[in-house]
Amino acid sequence: MHRSVIIIGAGGLGQQIAAAARIRGCRWRITLVDRDRERVDEAVAGLRALAVAPSPHVEGIALDALDEQGLRSLIEASRADAVVNVATLLPVERWWAIAGRQDVGRGFNELGFGPWLALHLVIASAVASAVGASEPRPLFMNAAYPDAINALLARWHGFAPAGAGNIRLLEPGLRTALSERAGSAGDDLEIALSAHYVHVRNLLMREPELPQGWRLSITWRGAPEGPGADEQRALLRRAGAAVPRGAASHTWTATSIVEDLEALLGQGPARRSLMAGPLGMVGGYPVELAEGSVRLALPEDWDEGELAAEQRRAARLDGIGGIDPRGAVEFSPSARDLYQSITGAALEPVTRENVADVARSQLEILRKL
């Protein structure tokens, strides 16, 4: 049976997901959604030109994801089985250009992504609202800063999306390094990793000190492997170094999204994976995926409560002080001070009611910096 998959965002990662599914021969009907008609048409034309099997069928729709009623109508009309959001308001190229400057770059990098989460949250929340109102409700996967955003979506909309990217980027390099270490093809290795986006960013940026708050467990042929902390750090650094830099990493993220979606849509066997923001949790965790199901897959000596607390502490390194039960985001005192020193503006808590206003203000700040 073919499955209907809607991808929100036709540029970059969105197009790569559709390409990965097409190359893999997934039994999907893919609809690429983007507010930019030209971008949609170019993406669909490029995908149809791929010299691979004709499945999945790909079409494009010009629609603003902030049009919740329009998106809901599309979801229901296409009988979507899954909706994947890769869209964000964050002007990524502008953000990284500022981060590379001599005057404010160091402070900007120290500030992290957390204080800018409103720019990821606006579209993700609109999509979640449309998904939640649809009958029947499809699977929802969010790839926009899921380490933080998914916890908010769960509180705001009453259901938890699956996550994508971030911690999942480390799995291929880890598996390669561990396979070489064990002299194994890798099929008999099980990897359990708990890590936040701040750890992933640290590894991708080749920073000298890896913050605390991560855990790694390795099982080979059913028996636990016990590399010490220094070797574990070395393995993680090797995994981070293997990830392509910048937009080139989209290929890895796209492939992992397709693999995980196949399991979640019941088109492949249940599988172990690593997921950012599963089950409305902050940070990334080892999970087991089956049709319509995401569950934590923790080693016996890992305590879920302790892991969750570690990930919340790690989030403070990305400027997020905490999320209250209603879904209001407080930022850490150091993030508030640094944000004001760089931008001249106050960093106020983000709520469902003010998120659009905060995002508009931050877009203007980034434009002027």
- The CATH superfamily of the largest domain is NAD(P)-binding Rossmann-like Domain
Number of helices: 14
Largest sheet descriptor: 6 strands, parallel
Nearest-integer average pLDDT: 93
The CATH topology assignment of the largest domain is Rossmann fold
Name the strands of the widest sheet in spatial order.
3-2-1-4-5-6
Integer tally of domains = 2
User: How many beta strands in the DSSP annotation?
Assistant: 14
Ranges with pLDDT <50 over ≥5 residues?
none
Just name the CATH architecture of the largest domain. Answer: 3-Layer(aba) Sandwich
Order of helices and strands: EHEHEHEHHHEHEHEHEEHHEEEHEEHH
**CA-atom Rg in angstroms:** 20 Å
Which outline best applies? Answer: globular
Helix content: 40-55%
| Cα end-to-end separation | 51 Å
* Helix/sheet category: alpha/beta
Which strand-content bin applies to the residues? 15-25%
Q: Report the CATH C-level class of the largest domain.
A: Alpha Beta
Description:
The chain has 369 residues and is an alpha/beta fold. The chain has 2 domains: 3-163, NAD(P)-binding Rossmann-like Domain (Rossmann fold); 167-315, Lactate dehydrogenase/glycoside hydrolase, family 4, C-terminal (L-2-Hydroxyisocaproate Dehydrogenase, Chain A, domain 2, Alpha-Beta Complex), CATH 3.90.110. The chain is built from 14 helices and 14 strands. It has helices at residues 13-24, 37-48, 68-77, 92-99, 105-111, 117-133, 146-157, 170-182, 197-204, 229-242, 250-264, 304-316, 333-343, 355-368; strands at residues 3-8, 28-34, 57-62, 82-85, 139-142, 162-163, 189-194, 215-220, 223-225, 271-276, 284-290, 293-296, 320-323, 329-331. Strands 3-2-1-4-5-6 form a 6-stranded parallel beta sheet, with helices on both faces. It has a 3-stranded antiparallel beta sheet with strand order 7-8-9, covered by helices on one side. A hairpin with a 2-residue loop joins strand 11 and strand 12.
